[in-house]
Amino acid sequence: MGPRPSSTVIEIVTADLAKALAFYRALGLEVPDGADDQPHVELPLPGGNRLAFDTEATIASFTADYTPPTGEGRLALAFGYDTPADVDAAHAALTSAGAPSEREPFDAFWGQRYATVRDPDGTHVDLFAALPQT
């Protein structure tokens, strides 16, 4: 077996970096001041991974004939919360800030409070927490 990765970065290519970062700020991620005007931004995620953002112009600068994707992708992000009430509060805060709700909070049969919103580029962002054991 060859070398193994030593870290993980999930990257989002965004049409509007400021809007994307505003969404992820509202989600609760730590976005540094002045990041909205950068071509590339990386944010720490709980658990030690990172979430990166590149503008379409950044990708085009090193990819010949780059055309931004259209339509829905196959990537979804999921963020865990401590309580079901936290899921409801996060969903309410994000949708109040303009994020479209894909799925209102509900108690899923697999034992979680679950909801889905979309970020400004259409990425599905799931919000979840374990339901109390009865």
Automatic annotation (TrEMBL):
Residues in VOC domain copies:
4-130
Q: Which SUPFAM superfamilies does the UniProt entry name for this protein?
A: Glyoxalase/Bleomycin resistance protein/Dihydroxybiphenyl dioxygenase
Signal sequence residues: none
Extract the Pfam families matched here: Glyoxalase
Q: Which InterPro entries match?
A: Glyas_Bleomycin-R_OHBP_Dase, Glyas_Fos-R_dOase_dom, VOC_core
Source domain of life is: Bacteria
Protein name in UniProt:
Glyoxalase
- Lineage of the organism: Bacteria, Bacillati, Actinomycetota, Actinomycetes, Pseudonocardiales
